[in-house]
Amino acid sequence: DLFASVEPLLPSLREDGVAVWVLGAGPYPPGVVALQELLDAASEELEPEDVWEPEDMNDTCLYIFTSGTTGLPKAARVSHLKSVMCLSFYELVGASSRDVVYLALPLYHMAGSLLGVLGCLGIGATCVLKEKFSASQFWDDCRAEGVTVFQYIGELCRYLVNQPQ
Q: Per the UniProt record, which residue ranges are transmembrane (predicted)?
């Protein structure tokens, strides 16, 4: 959905050696990797560990975008080690595979994608994704989905407390 925002930057990204991967209907310009085509062609067989295992757990695994609280939003490096550590997030706070986790945080942010979604995968919990947080719909959503845990940052709780009973 956001490819049009990235497309004007493609020449400078290529100069910097940044690969652009897109999941969605193409066609895409040369140099852009269309993930859906690769997924459709991929084998179901797992590759040997030496193909996918990182040489160093401190190497870059992925980039996320900061919210810009200390300036403009920017990409931030996340290591393989930090990504793996996120698998244990919900376990650290007492959640388990029996929980249903409500997540209304942006997935481009570490709190949403790595702590939220990856944290659910780490404990085998169900993750309920909400496209956009709505304080007025929150409790109805939680009841409808059987939510037992929700992840919040910033002002979410204040918004909930300010809703009519």
A: 107-129
Instruction: Provide the CB-side half-sphere exposure for 51 (13 A, CA).
Output: 4
CA–CA distance, 79 with 84 (Å, rounded to integer)? 9
User: Per-domain residue ranges for the chain?
Assistant: 2-50, 86-162
pLDDT per residue as tens digits for the range 22-51: 988 778 888 898 888 888 888 889 888 888
17 DSSP assignment: T
What's the Cα-to-Cα distance from 139 to each of 61, 79, 94, 142, 164, rounded to whole Å?
36, 35, 22, 5, 11
Q: Classify 40 as helix, strand or coil.
A: helix
**Which residue bears the tokens 């930090």?**
82
- CA–CA distance, 124 with 156 (Å, rounded to integer): 25
What is the C-alpha to C-alpha distance for residues 113 and 67, in angstroms, rounded to an integer?
Answer: 13
Which residues, in sequence order, are bridge partners of residue 63?
A: 77
* Topology (CATH) of 86-162: Rossmann fold (3.40.50)
Neighbours of 7 (CB within 10 A): 15
pTM greater than 0.70: no
